[in-house]
């Protein structure tokens, strides 16, 4: 399993699209690291559902940061 790190310049759907293309070309699953959120992308990954899941995880990350600052 390889890790793909995505940096500035791509939108979230573009990053997932590139990860899905990589999986289709190589046949092996990848770990997509986007803004410190790591997700597994494989041949069965639905692009739309992956973006929704990413946004939920990102919101959860922000909520944790808010709670830490309130202490």
Total helical elements = 2
Strand order of the largest sheet: 1-2-3
Beta fraction of the residues?
15-25%
- Main β sheet profile: 3 strands, mixed
- Class derived from helix and strand content: alpha+beta
**Helix percentage range:** 40-55%
- Report, as a whole number of angstroms, the end-to-end distance: 39 Å
Shape: elongated
Q: Give average pLDDT, whole number.
A: 91
Strand segment tally: 3
Q: What gyration radius follows from the Cα positions, in whole Å? A: 13 Å
Order of helices and strands: EHEEH
Low-confidence runs: none
List descriptors.
71 residues, alpha+beta, three-stranded mixed β-sheet, 2 helices, 3 strands, elongated
Short description:
With 71 residues, this protein is an alpha+beta fold. The chain has helices at 12-26, 47-70, and strands at residues 2-6, 30-34, 37-41.
Descriptive account of the structure:
The protein has helices at residues 12-26, 47-70, and strands spanning 2-6, 30-34, 37-41. It has 71 residues and is α+β, with helices and mostly antiparallel strands. It has a 3-stranded mixed sheet with strand order 1-2-3. Helix 1 crosses helix 2 (47-70). The longest helix is centred in the C-terminal third of the chain and has 24 residues, at 47-70.
């Amino acid at each position: 399993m390889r890790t793909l790190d995505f940096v500035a310049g791509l939108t979230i759907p573009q990053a997932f699209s590139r990860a899905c293309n990589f999986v289709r070309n190589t046949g092996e699953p990848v770990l997509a690291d986007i803004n410190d959120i790591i997700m597994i992308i494989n041949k069965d990954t639905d692009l739309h559902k992956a973006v929704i899941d990413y946004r939920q995880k990102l919101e959860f990350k922000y909520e944790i940061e808010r709670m830490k600052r309130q202490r």
